[in-house]
Amino acid sequence: MSAISQLWEADSIAVIGATERPGALGRKPMDYLLRYGYKGRILPVNPRATEILGVPAYPSLRDAPSPVDLALIMVSAERVAGAVDDCVAAGVPLAVIASSGFAETGPEGAALQADVVAAARAGGLRLIGPNCIGAVAYNSRVLATFSPLFGADDVPFEPGSLAFVSQSGALGFGAASLALQRGLRPGWVVSTGNDADVTVLEVLQELAREPECHGLLGYLEDAPDIEALKSISESGKPVALLKSGRTEAGGRAAASHTGALATDDRVLDAALRRLGIARVDDIDELLDVAHAFEFPLRPRGPRVAVVTTSGGSGILAADAVEERGLELSDLTPESKAALAEIVPAFGAVDNPVDITAMVLSDPTLFDRSLDVLIADDTVDIIIACFCVMASTDVQKAVTSLGKAARKGGKPILVARTGADFLAPDAPAMLREAQLPEYPTPARALRAAGALWQVSRPRTPLAPVAAGPGAVPAPASGATEPELKRLLSDAGVRVPAGRLAQDRRDAAAAVREVGGRAVLKAVVPGLLHKTEAGGVRLGVTEEGAAEAYDALRALGGDVLVEEEAPDGVEVIVGMRGSALGPVLTVGLGGVFTEILADAGHRLLPLAPGEAEQMIAELKGAALLTGARGAAASDTAALAELLERVAALAAGWPDGFELDLNPVRVLPQGVVVLDAAYTATG
Questions:
Q1: End-to-end alpha-carbon separation of the chain, Å?
Q2: Which of 192, 295, 516, 517 is 20 to 30 A distant from 219 in Cα terms?
Q3: Three-state secondary structure along 368-422?
Q4: Could you give the residue ranges of the DSSP H alpha helices within 521-579?
């Protein structure tokens, strides 16, 4: 147990800056602790009061009886340092600084914040905040917060199993209020504000140890720490994160194509995928995913069966399956035959299974079709869709669905499309049956995708060390010929060629490679040769001298290489990142950044991941033989990815390696260009 757990385990809470003044922030925590029945000692601190709301007050924390498990600091920024000193003197393990006026205000506030944190750390005190709204633990009724949520009339206050942790207090408690409105039950809500000491991820790590916590939900603004992410992932609790800053990260200036594609935000996506953490795009999705986390059933695979009373809902569900990283099950022949005996003739037995509106007159249609689907080993998740059903019919459907979920052990997510007034009791019935409910098929599939993401087998992210196939990192500014020698020595195919010494030697070099060649400028710092006019294609012996002169005028050497056979052009790259080395593959060659069709993985690669990266490309059909073209050698491309990952293992942080374009041939691959930068 760490000091952080005092947010929900504190037996004594000091409110520094407590007051009886109506509307004052320092009054709200006192009101809430008393109103919601906190069982521990409340110690208001105010030098001008002897009693606050009937509770004895103390002029200073040093005067209050010890021990004090948690302090809530509600004073102006210039008085916070003194309050922190008092907490240290009193042996308080954790303090929540609600006060603003720190790093969020600029350099002067940042300096004040650094001083406060340094003093706290020196005294063994951990800090939440500053500039935060505080925390609440429903199970223990610890309300170290001034959020207006708890001043509302009739706010639900039932113990729950979900943890919400947010840097933004307003957003975090706003999300919690929406969760309550939907019938979700948070158990913990924590805001960390400026994350000056204790971070969002540290709080999630601590909550992951709580037996009653069934789902972890976080909102981050700062770049996450990979070790903290690993620890949370290894807890086995389902985790969903909302990370802001996609646009800023996506606009990261990068010298190389790989840097432009493998932005920090995309690298984070790759890390979370590897760790089995769901990433969501907005609060609405976070709450949808949270609803699925509340219940215990988890999928064993990504294969989905859709059973619907509406053909339209079934089609929408099928459309959303692949988009969410899932697969529409083909169903076994035996299942289809059994369904054909159950489903009306005007329905459908191919997945999606349309049992039609006949279910209103024959409620057993749900029971019998669900029995078939839960017995089908090709089905891991069931999406049940029904529309505009009234209370009695919904009750029958929920009974069937709940029984099937318990019997089959497979998660069933419900898309109930219809107004609440049609079936006012439906949400309560579905919750009682432990069936997460959504208003549309797309939202149900979105939650199902996240449920599979947190349930899928995962390969641990181990430190990347040099092993077989590794080579020393190139020197900063290594030239294309130097890089190609390194690649060739590692078993990677590159075009035959050499540097030309002069215009006459250029013609000789063209002759050596077959009479037609590619000539390139080799200029330090010139990464995008095509845009600079640094590449000449189809050069003959007769045109070699003129091409040599034009390229030489750019200020460097001239490389003469054989022409490569036709094929599909891709980029393969690697770069270091704060989360570890990242491997990238993308379609397009010189148009890679325009197409933005790329996959990324943190190293080390798990078995089969290279093939997965290729298959996940939106334009993967170009590699498999689109419109009658010959299929490209994707096995050779996967081998290249693994070889590049191996040779660059152990390279220092701050590098970018571009192999672009790589031409994928019907047999084999060839690296046509290579660039390396060291930015660390």
A1: 38
A2: 295
A3: HHHHHHHHCCCCCEEEEEEECCCHHHHHHHHHHHHHHHHHHCCCEEEEEECCHHH
A4: 541-552
What local confidence, expressed as pLDDT, does residue 464 receive? 59
Position 602 scores a pLDDT of 87
- Cα 185 to chain centroid, rounded: 23
pLDDT of residue 678: 83
Query: What is the separation of C-alpha 598 from the centre of its chain, rounded to a whole number of angstroms?
Result: 17
- The sign of the dihedral angle between the CA atoms of 633, 637, 642, 648 is positive
Q: In whole angstroms, how far apart are CA 468 and each of 490, 581, 653, 655?
A: 10, 17, 20, 20
Q: Which of 533, 504, 534, 538 is nearest to 518 (CA)?
A: 538
- Given the DSSP bridges, would you call strands 353-354 and 381-387 parallel, antiparallel or unpaired? unpaired
What are the residues facing 437 on neighbouring strands? 414
Spans of the chain, pLDDT less than 50: 248-262
For the stretch 398-435, pLDDT in tens is 999 999 999 999 999 999 999 989 999 999 999 999 99
CB of 134 within 8 A of CB of 191? yes
The whole-angstrom separation of Cα 526 and Cα 513 is 25
- 81-109 residue pLDDT tens: 999 999 999 999 999 999 999 999 999 99
Q: Strand 497-500 and strand 557-562: pairing?
A: antiparallel
Phi-psi sector, 388: left (phi>0), alpha (psi -120 to 50), beta: left
pTM passes above 0.90: no
Strand ranges in 49-147 using DSSP code E only, listed in sequence order: 51-52, 55-56, 70-73, 94-97, 126-128, 134-137, 142-145
Q: Measured between alpha carbons, how far is 500 from 502 in angstroms, rounded to an integer? A: 6
Q: How many CB atoms lie within 10 A of CB 66?
A: 12
